[in-house]
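@channel sequence for tomorrow's demo:
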Amino acid sequence: MQVPSRSDMVRRMGQAHARQLVLASITGLLYPICFPDFDFGPVAWVVLVPLHLALDGCTPHRAFRVGWLAGVIAFVGVMFWVVTAMHQYGQMPLVASYTAMVLLCTYLGLYVAVYAAALAWLRRQAGHAGFFAAPFVWVTLELVRTYLLTGLPWALLGYSQYKWLSIIQFADHTGVYGVSFLVVLVNAALAEVSLWSLRQWQRQPVQTSGGHSFPWFTPSAAALGLAFSLWYGQAQLQESTSSASNEKPAAARTIHIGLVQPNIDQAKKWDAAYRRETLDRYARLTAHAAEGTALVVWPEAATPFFFEQEPSYRAEVTGLTQAFGVPLLFGSPTLRYYPNGRPYLLNSAYLLSKEGKILNRYDKQHLVPFGEYIPLRFMLFFLEKFVVGIGDFEAGTIPTVFQLPAKPEEHSSKFGLVICYEVIFPDLVRQFAFNGAQFMVTITNDAWFGTSAAPYQHFTMVVFRAIENRVAFARAANTGVSGFIDPQGRILLATPIFSEVSVKGEIPISRVSTFYTWHGDVFAFGCVIITGLFPVAARRRARRGAKVVGE
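structure tokens (generated this afternoon):
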């Protein structure tokens, strides 16, 4: 038998490494296609297959690097809008904006790197069982990304399926993490079958406990998961359709809401010279939105002034509610002072009665890092020199549930409100539903995103918040997307971005408490625990194998 020369071994190793990098890059390039702008969700069911193939035979260290490459490419494609937000609207120099975006994507890519390294290690230790561990590891890392360093759960893999309503209804038990789990499980099963088929064709040894036998376990789990999800989803959708047609009266289970999308240019938003034009636009759009509705909603930071501090302009806003005879919900910054007299801001939303009185106020709890405050200010003080618009905001502490006044013959309704970025955090929204919200409102100013994919990515996440808690959503955005989503995640209406429009819609206010509403991220934390058990099981298996060999 001819022994390969050193040069042949080096050449083969180089080819293997090149193949791994190409496969990892394919996963990175496919990942953005799963989300808006491309918005081709079916790709998500195979997006990790190239990466899984690349990891075959990799050491954990090599897998970490390969996974990091895939992750960085993937998140550059998804998060490219960061450049628009920082350069065009934050007035950060273009080079600095690209640098910040790459650094952010390098950080996000670490989650894919850790996933790849963990999967490579588990496959070495546990063989075919390593693929079954894949979705547990992935969900664990998505949960960590939701909370670590204030959290950035943007473009979680499950969000790619927002259009396939029948497959995502079980999110009312697991949250979006359950959908990510199923998608990764299918990817792992396809990769395992692909590797088995390739080795059968090449007549190579197959890494399964049964030698050349087909690896049934992970593919069977994926098939059962898909079947159960489709069955449950179809049942939920049919039940909602039949109950909607049978219930009566309609007025007791729906509410008419008007949304105002003023399309105020971000550069003019806080310019005093455009204040009159802004208020006139709101008045004109509100006149249409208020007709026949029980609530009118303006977007985040709608008033180009501090509502509580400027009586003359405040009177104009309260005058609108009195003139149209409808409650108004709108965003406005609130000015407060520390005990030492230093001022600070709250990103707030006010609910006015139709008589113009303040019924309640909600203060945004989860602020945007580097947008509304600078984390680690003592280290990053220089950022204020680069980025325009970073405010000195403080976070609210209470998930306020508003109560909407009703006529004597009607029942009042309760609703929760989340502002902008908050809607991407599943557990935060859950708290409002847990506290009795019968429908939800989210207000935002997505003008910062420009004409990028971000406004659409942001909007599609609301689909999952509706399903998780079985509450309808109304969304008012300064430049769009505004619209309505029902408790099953159906998008009832969505406006085009950068258009001046007011729309009206009818959404359900009756609701049922879901498992997710009551128990939160139990499924995701369960994945964390199981992920921690896999290495223990793998080590025990390795010790048993060594003991058998020794005997």
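heads up for whoever presents: The radius of gyration is 26 Å.
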